[in-house]
Amino acid sequence: MENRTVAVLGAGTMGAGIATVMARAGHHVILFDVSEDNLRRGIDTVHGFFDVSVQKGKLTDEQGRVAKSALHGSTSLADLAHCDVVVEAVYEDLRLKKDIFAQLDDIVSESTLFHTNTSTLSVTGIASGSRRPERVVGTHYCNPAPLMKLVEVADGRHTATWAHDATIRFLASLGKTSVVTKDRPGFIVNRFLIPWENSCIRALEAGLGTRDSIDAAVLGALGHPMGPFRLLDIVGMDIHQQVATRLYEQLRDPRFFPPPMVERMVAAGDLGRKTGRGFYEYDDNRLFGS
Questions:
Q1: How many domains does the chain have?
Q2: Same domain, yes or no, for 213 and 147?
Q3: What does the pLDDT look like over 234-261, one tens digit per residue?
């Protein structure tokens, strides 16, 4: 699993984070997006992470340079022809994801692994877009992907054993810990995380605590690596709204429905680090900056 050629589709928060993980692990990475502007922002995000890592002494100058040089961008699916693994991290739209895999069937090798980073849609449904659904595996990277070790692995109805096993080995090459789950809405993590984040937002709305006191309580008492509002600023309020709404539509559990504050923040453009303002304000809007 060393020195593979990997494509990451989608240069948004998750795509850029996953591309960072791949490049740091020594793989040759092609970050794909249909938008040149999105692609440039995604590449800048990855480079920014490695710059911060060098500044903090987590990487040497040479390691940072090598990791940055492993990343290339493209707006053409044809450039993915020689990829060993394709990780799809585009907008959570079933038709879009199916269409991308259908197009890739005619471009990549029959042995290329297809991974989908979905956490709200059916892996089986996405895999149905490919003529080879046996090679499609759900791999949900916990956010922020460069900092969190866990990846949820969910097989579709027709996922082959060889594809599942190869996926586990590939994730191990990234230094990730795999947790196998069923192809169900939200998998394990978002079944717990989204209602909890919504509860934190509702607590803030109700005046139960301040932004800082709630984050501090979670850090100090629950042992989380960051508070809910710092995490939401990295995820992006637009993404939280999208994921929460899709899970509510499928599960009809009111705990998943996003609180009114989410809609107000999205309408105001206060999406988090990527816009420079969310629950907190940022002079440095690098998604994984200090």
A1: 2
A2: no
A3: 999 999 999 999 999 999 999 999 999 9
